[in-house]
C-alpha cells in the first residue's frame, strides 16, 4: 500500500478544466496506467504507463492528445497496449 488516498476515475470534465503546469492526472481501477499531462502550451496528452516484462523498467507510450482522442478511445488504446505488452492474444469475440 502506498499510503495515498484512492483516486477518482478520470472524466472529460476534469480533462477540460486541467491547467498547464499542473500535476498529471491518472485514471484508477481497470484503467490504471492511463495518465494525462497538460503541457506549458495547454496541450493535454494521454499516456499509457506500464512496467516492461522484458527489462523491468517503466515504459511510457503516448496515445494522443485530448480532445482529438476522447477519453473512451484512450482507455481502449490503453487496454490494447497492455495486452500487447503482456504478450497475450486479444479476443475476437
What does this 3D model show about the protein?
- The chain is of the alpha+beta class and 93 residues long.
- It has a single domain, classed as 2-Layer Sandwich (Double Stranded RNA Binding Domain).
- 23% of the residues lie in helices and 26% in strands.
- It contains 2 helices and 4 strands; from the N terminus they run αββββα.
- The protein has helices at residues 12-16, 71-86, and strands spanning 25-26, 34-38, 44-51, 58-66.
- Strand 2 and strand 3 form a beta hairpin.
- It comes from Pantoea ananas (Erwinia uredovora).
Biggest sheet, strands in spatial order? 1-2-3-4
Largest β sheet strand count, sense and barrel closure: 4 strands, antiparallel
Helix content: 10-25%
Q: Structural class, from helix and strand content?
A: alpha+beta
CATH architecture: 2-Layer Sandwich
- Cα Rg: 14 Å
Domains (count): 1
Instruction: Estimate the mean pLDDT confidence.
Output: 85
| CATH domain topology | Double Stranded RNA Binding Domain
Give me the count of strands.
4
Q: Provide the CATH top-level class.
A: Alpha Beta
Order of helices and strands: HEEEEH
- The total count of helices amounts to 2
Low-pLDDT regions: 1-5
Distance between the termini: 36 Å
Strand % is 25-35%
Amino acid at each position: 500500500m502506498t499510503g495515498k488516498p484512492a483516486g477518482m476515475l478520470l472524466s472529460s470534465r476534469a480533462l477540460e478544466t486541467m491547467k498547464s503546469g499542473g500535476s498529471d492526472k491518472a485514471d484508477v481501477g481497470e484503467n490504471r496506467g492511463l495518465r494525462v499531462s497538460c503541457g506549458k502550451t495547454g496541450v493535454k496528452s494521454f499516456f499509457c504507463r506500464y512496467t516492461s516484462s522484458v527489462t523491468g523498467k517503466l515504459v511510457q507510450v503516448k496515445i494522443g492528445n485530448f480532445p482529438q482522442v476522447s477519453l473512451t478511445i484512450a482507455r481502449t488504446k490503453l487496454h490494447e497496449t497492455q495486452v500487447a505488452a503482456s504478450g497475450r492474444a486479444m479476443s475476437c469475440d
